[in-house]
Amino acid sequence: MTDQPPATLAGLGEFGVVGLITRGLPLGADVRVGPGDDAAVLAPGASDLVVTTDTMVEGVHFKRDWSSGLETGRKAVAAAAADVEAMGGRPWALVVSLSAPADLPVTWLRFFRQGVLQECELAGAQLVGGDTTRSRDVVVGVTVLGRLDGPAVTRAGARPGDVVAVRGRLGWAAAGLAVLGRGFRSPRAAVAAQLAPEVPWGAGEEARAAGATAMIDVSDGLLADLGHVCAASGVAIDLDSAAFEVPDVLQTVAAATGGDPLRLVLTGGEDHALAATFAEADVPAGWRVVGRVVTPPEADTRVTVDGREWEGVGGHDHFGA
Amino acid sequence: MTDQPPATLAGLGEFGVVGLITRGLPLGADVRVGPGDDAAVLAPGASDLVVTTDTMVEGVHFKRDWSSGLETGRKAVAAAAADVEAMGGRPWALVVSLSAPADLPVTWLRFFRQGVLQECELAGAQLVGGDTTRSRDVVVGVTVLGRLDGPAVTRAGARPGDVVAVRGRLGWAAAGLAVLGRGFRSPRAAVAAQLAPEVPWGAGEEARAAGATAMIDVSDGLLADLGHVCAASGVAIDLDSAAFEVPDVLQTVAAATGGDPLRLVLTGGEDHALAATFAEADVPAGWRVVGRVVTPPEADTRVTVDGREWEGVGGHDHFGA
């Protein structure tokens, strides 16, 4: 034994890991029992409750070669809490499960905690509990509770005549992945977007209050995710390619990788933008109208671009079928 | 392509996996939006909300050689929901995250679903959502929401003079593990207890209503878990070895493995019995009084047996420190 602080989770031990993560957490007055007991206890108030869970697996969703602990923590919270926004709710409280190998550096854990708390602060949520265990690969599970002060905005309410609007980034994370996959680390804005998204926090409740008829968060790519809205609502959607902003960083990446910047925008996932449908007069400021909900010909509930089918809509199937 | 139904998750695909698990779920009137959208939406009512998460990793918490999908699903739900009981609450709604290799048999998944739903029914909870992704090892994360109609029973309220009482099994799961570890599959009652515990559902709320001053679920072993109560409450506990029931199955396993049946009772985890402290007159029927809360000498908040320290209290450290 030396006086050195432990360098890995094995040295820290299970209670040390929990202690490092939970020490000094900022907790609201609505948390009756915080971390450290068998479970957390919250005062829910009068709002409805939104519940969603999301899991990130090392080697599937992130690589420790690419992502720091901070980015991993930020991305895990962002991906889960964005689903609360997509129902029109506000992220409120979350529990985190961390499975990790015993040789994981304590430094990684410290940065992971920092990333979780940073994204919690951005999202307006608080960490109230969790669980930690050993595993071969790092697996991060985040369950988020949200508050919802009105009817949920599901995927099923889009009506022909509504417009389709988006808020947040599209294609940035996919551009970052294209860059990283070729062994580069720039443009840094694209790489940063892949490692931890910039979610338009607050936009989900804003859309609900404005009267959004359907909403989804863009995790698999705009075309794929709007496809879910079409299927749930029994409608079709036609997007206007000229309505999209294609930022310089996507032009740069597309030029460098031989890709199409519009393809990044339409099919790139992991940015957790929000896409919603509104009556035309209801679109809030800051949302970009990019298409229109139409009556599908013969129940063919699909998404078109400029009236034509887009090749290779994609969407990611984790089991590879 | 053939007309054969897919044999593995790869053939089923991500949406097929989600569809198989979520199709036809029984949902209460308090579920406003069930599985299939970005998140579930629940009407919380007037109760306080209990939140807890628990993760089981293949090769760490279970082996697919030993546990069927049904047992894995049952155990994952039981281990998580027992923490709601331990606060004095009632399990209400849960989300499940399943990470699994693409070659996992669909049959395993069907049994897993059945196990999750069986244990949900026993616990009085409903499955409202989840997430699935690919991974090398099967990792099951369960987050449970509970309802709590009164002050939470934490670990911190035990008072000198209280009695310590337990409800549920002690040592059965550890006995099963000892058997399985030697390559045997009997006594079957012990093996079954290791593969999926029999949680005393409803006993947590019963203890709270009766005035329990502190409570914990026995996941790491009675001595280790009562140690947490002692530390949180600033007390010591002395157990009476003669007060424990040592069932025949533990005698059998101890005789066959050269172990001590009382050691199984005092240090065996994973049965998710409840241990609580009460004023002596408040102990509900069905609870067994096994010890007493005492004032610790010199802040030495530890658990003794018949007035003496028990060697090797144990408790399981997942990171092996």
TrEMBL record, chains A, B:
Signal sequence region: none
Binding site for Mg(2+) 5: D220
Chain positions recorded as Mg(2+) 3 binding sites: D38, D83, D217
Annotated binding of ATP, by residue: G130, D131, R155, S219
Pathway field: Cofactor biosynthesis; thiamine diphosphate biosynthesis; thiamine diphosphate from thiamine phosphate: step 1/1
GO BP, one annotated term: thiamine diphosphate biosynthetic process
Residues reported in the UniProt entry to bind Mg(2+) 1: T53, D54, D131
Main enzyme class: transferase
Cross-referenced CDD domains: ThiL (cd02194)
Molecular-function GO term, any one: ATP binding
Catalytic activity line of the entry: thiamine phosphate + ATP = thiamine diphosphate + ADP
Keyword Transferase among UniProt keywords: yes
Entry EC number(s): 2.7.4.16
Sequence positions that bind Mg(2+) 4: D38, T52, D83
Residue sites binding substrate per the record: H61, E270
Keywords (A to Z) from UniProt: ATP-binding, Kinase, Magnesium, Metal-binding, Nucleotide-binding, Thiamine biosynthesis, Transferase
Task of the protein: Catalyzes the ATP-dependent phosphorylation of thiamine-monophosphate (TMP) to form thiamine-pyrophosphate (TPP), the active form of vitamin B1.
Entries under HAMAP family matching the protein: TMP_kinase (MF_02128)
Family affiliation: Belongs to the thiamine-monophosphate kinase family.
Protein name, UniProt field: Thiamine-monophosphate kinase
The species this protein was found in: Desertihabitans brevis
Gene, per the UniProt record: thiL
